[in-house]
Structure formats: C-alpha cells, structure tokens
Amino acid sequence: MTTKINRTHYKKVLPKEHLPEWIKPKLGRASEIERVQKLVKSSQLHTICEEGRCPNRGECYASGTATFLLGGSICTRSCAFCQVDKGKSPEEINPNEPERVAEAIAQLGLRYVVITSVARDDLYDHGASLFINTIKAIRSLNPLTGIEVLTPDFWGGFKNPTEAKQAQRDRLSAVLSEKPICFNHNLETVKRLQGEVRRGATYQRSLSLLKAARELDPNIPTKSGLMVGLGETYTEIIQTLKDLRSVDCQRITIGQYLRPSLEHIPVANYWHPDDFDKLGEAAKELGFKKVNSGPLVRSSYHAEET
C-alpha cells in the first residue's frame, strides 16, 4: 500500500513548526563557497550541492570535497522531495562536460569527489556513459583524487521486465568497470512511501541495483541513503535497513528531510538528534561498516572519510 498526498495541495500545507534549534548547518568559509560557485558557473557545470540547496555545501567546499551533477540541471523524473528542476526535454549532453569537471577538480584541488547525475531516461544508456566518461577524464588529470559515484537506477528502455533488468545490470557493470572507490544509490525512504516520494523509481529496483553491484564487483563497497521526516515509523526504518543489509549494502547515511519549497512534499516531523544516534547504533548492529546518521547528514556528507 502506498501513501498518497495530493500534490495540488502542497502549497496549502505549511510545516507544523519552525525549524528546530538543532537544524543549524555549518557555514564554512565564505571565500571557499564563493570560489567554488564562481568556478562552477564559469565552467558551465552543475553541482548537486547548489542545485539541491544542500545545507552542508559550505562545510564540504571548505574541506576539499564536492558533488558534481552530470547530464545538465533538468531531471526526467519528478521526485516529490528534490529541488532539482524537472522536465520532459532536458538539455543536450555537453560533450565537453567530463573534461570541464576534471579541470574544475584540478583548479579547486579537490581530493575526493562524488559524481552524480540527473535521471536521463531519454538517453539510450540512461546516463551510464556520463559516469564512465567523467571518471576517465578525472583520472587522466587528477590521478590521486578519490571518486565515488551516486547513480540513478539505470532502469528503462524495455517493456519486457527481463530485458529491462538485464539492461540495468549491463549499464551498472560498465560503470563499475571504471573502479570507483564507492558505489552509491539512494533508497531515499521506506517502502510504504516510495510511490509518492520517488516517482519513476521503485524500492525493489533500487535494492536489485545494489545487490547486482555487490555481485559484479565485491571489491567496491556499496552505499545508500535514507531521508526521515516524511511520515515513516521507527519500525519501518529498521526494516529498510534490514532490507539494505539483505543485499549486502555496506554503508548508510540517514538524514532529516528538509522541504525545499512549498511546491515539495511537506515535512511530517523532525526527528531529534537522539533519534538519529539511536538509528545509527541500530545500523551498526545490523552490520553496516560505515554509518553517518544525523539531522543534516546527506548522501555525500563526509564521504571523503572513507
């Protein structure tokens, strides 16, 4: 059963309270933020840090990490939580994007990067080549920079489920052949809320992708991320963690959902920092090898610690 929220009513549904006192992002150095923003803009690049209005971007820039967004700034899916622009006609792929990303990394002196992308269901390979070409370009210019990938589910293009699953596996295999340090794919929320929160994706497809990643290359650790505050229960979160461990997902991030605008799905509740500590301990007990759990944790937060 999927919980449905009428999207036409989103503007009328205001948060139940102001942001609690513990939702206070670290600002980082203003000079670092400005430097990254200017370079990204002049290079005609995108970062999920900016497109997604991440509350930690100042801190991450100051520590020498960033998450680059491949494939333009328009996503072909319409997830109810995400700040990234949506549309059926995304931009043409920029053939120079991989080299520009690599050059930006060199100029910024980044020692660890996460590369992600908008969903590009319009492309023949659903965006797998975006990751492959960018990894190659980064390695050519920045051989010592660690590269983590955060991918969409690579699902689509075939009506036959068997063919679609094989295509997903083939696209994933091609990305993993470039040997990223970590493979990340976010489950985002509990099974009951998937339909409204993650339009175009499914719980089982995401679990299958993470499972396939472990089968294709056991030497590359897998990672996933969850948002809380969408109406899930503690029991549902624990079950989701168990489901992730059942496919040998090894790393997990758990953070508070923050509503980007009144156009997006409302916050149901704000979990207390003590709750995040409890969830983090539960994740460790279930066998996750690396756990980041806290109100402002995002899927790329402190990724370089690995």
Question: Could you explain the architecture of this structure?
Answer:
By secondary structure, the protein is an alpha/beta fold. It has a single domain, classed as TIM Barrel, CATH 3.20.20.70. It is about 35% helix and about 15% strand. It contains ten helices and nine strands. The strands form two sheets. Strands 1-4-5-6-7-8-9 form a seven-stranded parallel β-sheet. Strands 2-3 form a two-stranded parallel ribbon. The termini are far apart.
Jot down its keywords.
306 residues, alpha/beta, TIM Barrel, seven-stranded parallel beta sheet, two-stranded parallel ribbon, 10 helices, 9 strands, disordered N terminus
Question: What order do the helices and strands come in, and which of them pair?
Answer:
Layout: H1 30-42, H2 48-51, H3 57-63, E1 65-70, E2 74-75, E3 85-86, H4 97-108, E4 112-117, H5 128-141, E5 146-150, H6 161-176, E6 182-184, H7 194-197, H8 203-216, E7 222-228, H9 234-246, E8 251-256, H10 273-286, E9 290-293
Parallel strand pairs: 1-4, 2-3, 4-5, 5-6, 6-7, 7-8, 8-9
Helix pairs in contact: 1-3, 4-5, 5-6, 6-8, 9-10
